[in-house]
Amino acid sequence: MFKGSTVIDVGVKSAFSALFLGGRLVNRNGDGQDRKVIKAIEDLNNGQNAKNAVAVLERLSSDQKAESIKQLNALALCILGASESSLCQVASDSRAHRIEIARPQLMERLETISLDNDWNKALLWYSVDACGEEDLACSNETLLNRPRNIQKLMRLLRILSSKTELNYSSSMVDQGVLDVLYEVFQHYRQSNLAICAYILKILANIVMDGAYCADAVVHSQWMATLLELLSHKNEEIQITTKKIFLNVLYSLQVKETSLGPDLYELYCTPYCSKPEVDIVLLHGMRGGAFRSWRQKDNPSEETVKCWPKAWLPRDVKGHFRIVAVDYPSALYGGDLMENLHARASRVYDLLKRAGIGDRSVVFICHSMGGLLAKQILINSPSLRENTVGILFMATPHYGTPVAKDYLFEVFRPTTDFKMLIEGNEANKKLHADFLEQEPRVPLMLNVSESVESPLFGKVKSMLVPSLSSSFPGCGLYHVPEMHHNVCKPADVNALSYKIVLKFIEDVLHYTRTHSKVNHSC
């Protein structure tokens, strides 16, 4: 979302004007370009009137688009990227190619980065070859792509990611980490999308750390690649790339909100500064922002990887934004995983920085995501006041009998798993505390599974029985799906999707009839 009707007030935002206003402008009188096109290019380069400017350029012929793109500066390209304009494909550099990088060369680059003891220890671990000295056929390419070394590289990337959350980003940029990440990305681009996605997540954190870091990325070799990745077939790559551009605009004070770690914008009405509603997706245990919300698997046909992004913008009439939270959770691991209170506090901070709570909010929650939503709203009265709806999809308000039966089969169960035991005191207190909250959320609805889930062998069970998934005083729908598929509709005609669609329409109607805020975009 951009500030107001214009993207930026040039002359006021001096933090970046010197960085980005150097793009070449067309000559009004010398090249014969239409004045509307000239004005559109000038507006984008100055960060003004983005919606109208992009509309003008998108109507041009292919040759005219290519010529106009050459006259856009870095700020304009970032605006195109954040809005996912079709012009991004024209702007992407077709000369981008895969870089063959030898592991010794990568080690030399990594060793030039100095952070802290955690990084140094991980680097030492990574430097130990997985090939024995007698294995003369073990090439550099083999080293880079062996599963053990892939795991080591992911460990290094996780540490880099954690350091971007601790104000190391500027230091990392100064030490050339952008070039190292680019080389690693290009090497694994065709063979390991998990590594590529993680690198993009690191970039999204780096560019959020101020104008210096944002400028370093957009003026690097990354820029052409990022524009190209906006049309990548992998949903996670595409969405994370858009997140990078949105965070660049935040660091340049073009946007007022940012997308922190583990938060992703799946959709926002284009160029809309004031959506009517923010839709927040909270997945369940062992789920994820890029796993839980996919269409139900069907081996006979291709399915969409993120149905809220693919279907809701087409079917919902109104201005809205969809964001998804991606938090780690597990069945086992003891106290190594954060508990519900810590997670709720962290997620609330992410939502606040993203502007969630400034207008009407609706939570769509699967399983444990519903417990997380309740804890977040207990902790934040201001967010609760603006929460119009909660859709609980197979949420274990009273736990699940399966958890107790299999507790002792799980090695070092996490606090998350313990909360799912029927009669768990922490879950009982959470439920009681949420019932006492005032004002009460106006619209709440329950969705319950009605098909048993396979546990092991031929044993099946209802993971969250109807009684547990029923929040008191709210309607209850039973859908013919097992637990994990309650949030994965088979198609747009599935009952689960129709429930979601109708619920969002009800939320929009409630917002329009009760809100005093002008939501025109």
TrEMBL record:
GO terms for biological process: phospholipid biosynthetic process; protein transport. Residues 309-417 form the GPI inositol-deacylase PGAP1-like alpha/beta domain. Its EC number is 3.1.-.-. It is an enzyme of class 3 (hydrolase). Keywords: Endoplasmic reticulum, Hydrolase, Lipid biosynthesis, Lipid metabolism, Membrane, Mitochondrion, Phospholipid biosynthesis, Phospholipid metabolism, Protein transport, Transmembrane, Transmembrane helix, Transport. GO terms for molecular function: hydrolase activity, acting on ester bonds. GO terms for cellular component: endoplasmic reticulum membrane; mitochondrion. InterPro entries: AB_hydrolase_fold (IPR029058), ARM-like (IPR011989), ARM-type_fold (IPR016024), PGAP1-ab_dom-like (IPR012908), SERAC1 (IPR052374). It is a single-pass membrane protein. It holds the Pfam family PGAP1. Belongs to the GPI inositol-deacylase family. This is GPI inositol-deacylase. It comes from Steinernema hermaphroditum.
